[in-house]
Design brief:
Blueprint: H1 2-16, E1 35-39, E2 42-49, H2 52-57, E3 69-79, E4 82-83, E5 92-97, E6 103-109, E7 117-118, E8 124-131, H3 134-137, H4 148-158, H5 162-165
Parallel strand pairs: 2-3
Antiparallel strand pairs: 1-2, 3-8, 4-7, 5-6, 5-8
Length: 167
């Protein structure tokens, strides 16, 4: 009785792991994956926060960012956005971005600050956080564009429908 049960279990495990590499779906990429996104004339490497939990966590606990690293916060509607720096050990710049990719404003947020940083307008669709001073250092300013096609590709690679976030 034990031998047929063991054989059935072994066959089931083999069947679960017998996908051919050519027909297997691409694995969904996680939040830690960085994607190339052009901002103005500069290519950054952004994590894509698309779920409510990812957006709530943001860059909390991140102690170091390289010159090109940051995070894009993706929303499915225009709104006035507010961010805070609780449990975030680095000073950060935040750019509020319109649905067409136009940088609307750039603000600096201080590590650990629990006061919110709120966009001036309610026409914000995305936000991008980079280390403090990044936007000024690389000359990315209001009126410049974030490459929407890069964000679409990143969302798709993460397993999200880009149309949900980018009309």
């Amino acid at each position: 009785m034990i031998r047929p049960l063991f054989l059935s279990l072994a066959l089931a495990l083999v069947a679960c792991d017998s996908r051919q590499a050519s027909s297997a779906p691409v694995a969904e990429l996680g939040l830690e994956t960085r994607f190339p996104v052009r901002m103005g004339q500069v290519l950054g490497q952004l994590r894509i926060a698309a779920t409510d939990l990812e957006k709530a966590r943001g860059l909390m606990g991140v102690t170091k960012l390289t010159d090109e690293e940051g995070m894009a916060f993706m929303y499915d509607a225009e709104m006035r956005m507010s961010f805070w720096m609780k449990d975030t050990p680095l000073d950060l710049d935040i750019a509020f971005i319109a649905r067409d990719g136009t940088v609307l404003e750039v603000r600096t947020m201080t590590s650990g600050d629990t006061e919110t940083t709120t966009s001036i307008t309610d026409q914000v669709r995305f936000a991008i956080e980079m280390r403090a001073g990044w936007f000024g250092h690389f000359g990315v300013k209001p009126g410049d564009k974030v490459n929407i096609d890069d964000l679409r590709a990143a969302l798709k690679a993460r397993g999200f429908d880009p149309k949900r976030f980018i009309p």
